[in-house]
Write a structure and sequence with these properties.
The complex is a heterotrimer. By secondary structure, chain A is α+β, with helices and mostly antiparallel strands. Chain A contains 4 helices and 5 strands. Chain A has a domain of about 110 residues: Alpha-Beta Plaits (2-Layer Sandwich). In chain A, the strands form 2 sheets. In chain A, strands 2-3-5 form a 3-stranded antiparallel β-sheet. A two-stranded antiparallel ribbon of chain A has the order 1-4. Chain C is mainly α. Chain C has one domain. Classes of the chains: A alpha+beta, B alpha+beta, C mainly alpha.
């Protein structure tokens, strides 16, 4: 008030209010920036860090996991359980259980960095929702089979 | 919490009949989280505001005593979700200082660039939320348009949008590429044009100026007494910025200014933050120009052997000085980790700041302090 | 049944349904305009471009329970929404939508409208008081003080028109704008009226009674279901009334360039002007921050009232001289 005086204030105020109105009306006729989610989906960057999953190796037709347990050890929240069993005639243990409790995961990426065989990677799934906690207890072997091995088998069967 | 407990008792005294208590929060639109402010009021004037904390306490400091550095990394990003990278930065640098680990130059540049981008994100969020406190709904969506652009850039290298876990002891976990550099340069150009919109819509607006001018004045003396840092202290004219006063990383190599206010009112804090955004853009620009080639992660032993002793590291987070102080008893797990968060001391000023002002002004003053409640509660 | 009574019943039904329709159109408009100002599409889900959304919202509100808070004055708490809704329907009875489309022609229709819109503040007072909630009470106090002080510049600005036309009849005022609209000779009065109208209807930037960031929702914090929707309907009906007075007094009412629509030309022009003004109201709401309470008062007493008085004085002198 004291800076601009009675009429100065009025003039300044009216001008600033009109400028404000101009800004919003100009924005009103600009295109929409939001993405209509269920119908449109954003392109997710390949570097997106979702939950971890086993990497499919097309050469062996499975995953490279050697059941060393480094990932489970590295995990700060104990959400990974890895189990292996020794089949007859094989030198090493093979993977029998790889479960991830995604409710506890904090997406730090320690397990991916700890893996000596690069058998773990981040998934690109970001629209995950569920009604129960158990839905987020992922069985990664089953997931790998569903995503890679079964389609391959189906393709082979089709031929 | 003793004072807050005391005030919980209703005023039975007949002389204080006009006074009453009003609970602002823990669920209130303008406390931005689970902060509860117990207000002793007379009409619309506040006599004594008492913040009540602890609704979002998650024991981060205690958790640090049971984990090695990598296991605690995700926690650092979850303290201040609005600007997680400075928190990462301080935490990894703490270990680097104690163990004497060399960080490659490129990694330091990447840290500075991403931290400054994160500061921009935080100030975008604050700008929108502050205007929301003042009753303007549209600016928050405009700042979110810009914020999304930065988040997209950061997501492309860090893999996440909010609670980053990107820095590692000895460097960063993923290198930046040319796409990042070009996108960031484009963003800097875009953001400089956007300041014009902010200034026209907000800074020049008479209603906005009337709401913030002379509201929530923090004098220099008061700021020093409470130990406030960051834009709040700089708004009161205290020239203190960890990036300048206690330079870390590669900040001394850049030419940037520390914006200062004069009166310490909400307008000054607003202007300081707005100018800080511009300065962040300058830092990023220079860092991108000077970006050296080389490794992004230095040589770090797989299991960190910490010497017995203590170490502290301060960084300039988006809200002020953030200090990690660690006592190590050897091994790879800290004996004790103390985190000094900026919002906590910035909030501690509220009881004095809010005395005798209107409820609307308290909302303005609290908004201009830029509090992140999970950071205070940790 | 006497034809006059039959006419009144039909009119009453029409008016109430118009109030509901208006709230729906305005609610849709507000959400769409705000969305586009904020660079988002807004309502898109129910019906093409979400036009049916407001019907769904209405049904949802009807289906909700009216929670009566404990410790509240139960009778007054239930009364307040009705008290708010009923008076805001009545102005529609005398508004001339077109040359012939007017339910009751009253000589003092302007005064009748102003009287009716003022009752709204009583409803807010009752609602805030009966809720037994401190935030509601704050909203109420602010609202009452605001409405009382803004009524003065509003009336003063309208008086200068009355001086020019020497009639309170709305049709008479429209007839007086035969050659030019009054906004051309009384721009200051129009601006003062419009600003006071914003404050009178508790619209941003004067939406202190429901200041979201301070008082959560102000006087209707405790209301749910139909209790809330009556306040909502009343707010939009009041907005329409304020804008239609502005149209009638300053923008020539239903007069406009003849369109090939026969008798409907008048109502088309009237609606266009009213909704144009309503658009400005919405536009302003999504642009500005909220003023503080003392600033609201000082703006009224320091700026609006002196200017309105000066305007009235000048008008009186000029009318006397001519």
């Amino acid at each position: 008030m004291s800076k601009r005086g009675y009429f100065g204030e009025l003039w300044f105020g009216a001008k600033s209010l009109l400028i404000g109105l101009k800004v919003t009306i100009v924005e009103m006729f600009k295109p929409i920036v939001t993405v209509q989610y269920p119908r449109e989906e954003c392109d997710i960057t390949p570097n997106y860090r979702g939950h971890v999953e086993l990497v499919f190796n097309p050469e062996t037709g499975g995953c490279d996991c050697i059941v060393c347990g480094m990932c489970a050890k590295a995990c700060p929240s104990d959400c990974i359980v890895v189990k292996g069993e020794k089949k007859e005639g094989e030198k090493r243990k093979s993977l029998s259980l790889f479960s991830l409790d995604f409710t506890k995961c904090s997406l730090c990426g320690s397990c991916v960095e700890a893996c000596p065989k690069s058998a773990l990677d981040y998934s690109q799934d970001y629209n995950i929702a569920g009604f129960t906690r158990e839905e987020f207890h992922y069985d990664l072997i089953e997931r790998l089979e569903r995503r890679h091995i079964q389609p391959l088998a189906a393709a082979a069967g089709g031929n | 919490m003793e004072t807050a407990q005391l005030n919980l008792e209703p005023a039975t005294d007949i002389q204080h009949d006009n006074r009453y208590y009003l609970n602002m929060g823990p669920q209130h639109p303008s406390t931005h989280g689970v902060l509860r402010v117990l207000l002793e009021m007379d009409g619309e004037y506040i006599l004594d505001p008492q913040p009540v904390l602890g609704y979002g306490h998650r024991m981060h400091e205690k958790m640090a005593e049971h984990k090695n550095w990598m296991a605690f990394m995700p926690n650092t990003g979850r303290m201040d979700y609005a600007a997680a990278l400075p928190y990462n930065h301080g935490f990894v640098s703490l270990f680097e200082r104690l163990c004497g680990i060399e960080v490659p130059e490129r990694a330091e540049y990447i840290r500075v660039i991403t931290s400054e981008l994160n500061r921009l994100v935080s100030h975008h969020l604050w700008l929108g939320a502050f205007l929301l406190d003042l009753g303007a709904f549209t600016p928050i969506l405009y700042t979110f348009i810009d914020r999304e652009k930065v988040l997209d850039i950061l997501e492309d290298i860090t893999g996440s949008r909010l609670t980053y876990c990107y820095f590692r002891v000895g460097g960063v976990c993923k290198d930046i590429d040319d796409k990042f550099v070009t996108r960031t340069r484009e963003f800097i150009k875009y953001q400089r044009e956007r300041f014009d919109v902010y200034n026209k819509l907000v800074t020049g607006n008479i209603i906005f100026l009337k709401r913030v001018e002379g509201v929530g004045v923090i004098s220099k003396d008061m700021a020093l007494r409470y130990g406030v840092t960051g834009p709040v202290a700089r708004g009161s004219g205290i020239n203190y910025d960890v990036r300048k006063n206690e330079p870390y990383s590669v900040y001394p190599r850049f030419d940037f200014e520390i914006p200062l206010g004069e009166n310490g009112d909400s307008l000054d804090r607003y202007m300081v933050r707005l100018n800080e955004m511009e300065q962040s853009l300058r830092i990023i620009e220079q860092a991108l120009d000077q970006l050296p080639a080389g490794p992004f992660l230095g040589k770090v032993p797989k299991k960190l052997k910490m010497p017995v002793g203590d170490s502290s590291f301060a960084v300039e987070a988006a809200r002020g000085e953030l200090t990690y102080y660690m006592v190590s008893g050897g091994g790879d797990i800290p004996y004790r980790l103390k985190i000094r968060v900026p919002s906590y001391s910035n909030l501690s000023i509220l009881p004095e700041l809010g005395q005798g002002i209107l409820l609307s002004d308290l909302v303005t003053a609290m908004g201009s302090l830029d509090l992140v409640i999970p950071e205070i509660d940790r | 049944m006497p034809p006059e009574l039959l006419r009144m019943i039909i009119a009453a039904v029409l008016v109430v349904s118009f109030v509901f329709l208006n709230a729906m159109v305005l609610g849709y408009m507000e959400r769409k305009v705000s969305a586009h100002i904020q660079r988002r599409p807004g309502l898109m889900e129910v019906g093409p471009h979400g036009v049916l959304q407001l019907i769904i919202d209405g049904l949802k509100l009807i289906g909700k329970q009216l929670v009566v808070p404990e410790g509240s004055n139960k009778f007054l708490f239930r009364l307040a929404p009705l008290l708010s809704f009923a008076p805001c329907v009545l102005p529609f009875v005398v508004i001339p939508f077109s040359r012939k489309l007017q339910i009751v022609s009253m000589d003092v229709s302007l005064i009748f409208i102003l009287a009716m819109t003022s009752i709204n503040v009583v409803a807010i007072l009752v609602a805030g008081w009966a809720s037994n909630n401190k935030y509601s009470l704050f909203g109420t106090f602010r609202s009452v003080a605001q409405a009382v002080s803004y009524e003065i510049p509003m009336l003063l600005s309208l008086l200068s028109i009355i001086l020019m036309t020497s009639t309170f009849s709305l049709q008479g005022i429209i007839a007086a704008q035969k050659y030019y609209w009054f906004i051309l000779v009384q721009p200051l009065a129009f601006i003062i009226y419009f600003i006071s109208g914003l404050a009178e209807t508790n619209r941003a930037p004067f939406d202190l009674p429901e200041a979201e960031s301070e008082l959560t929702a102000g006087f209707h914090t405790e209301y749910s279901g139909m209790g809330f929707s009556f306040f909502f309907l009343a707010e939009y009906a009041n907005m329409f009334t304020v804008c239609s007075i502005a149209t009638i007094l300053f923008l020539g009412g239903w007069k406009g360039i003849p369109l090939p629509l026969g008798d409907f030309t008048g109502i088309v022009w009237f609606m266009l002007k009213v909704y144009g003004l309503l658009f400005v109201m919405i536009w302003a709401r999504w642009t500005y921050p909220r003023v503080r309470f003392d600033q609201l008062m000082s703006f009224c007493w320091k700026y609006l009232i002196p200017f309105a008085l000066a305007n009235l004085l000048i008008t009186a002198v000029v009318v006397k001289l001519i």
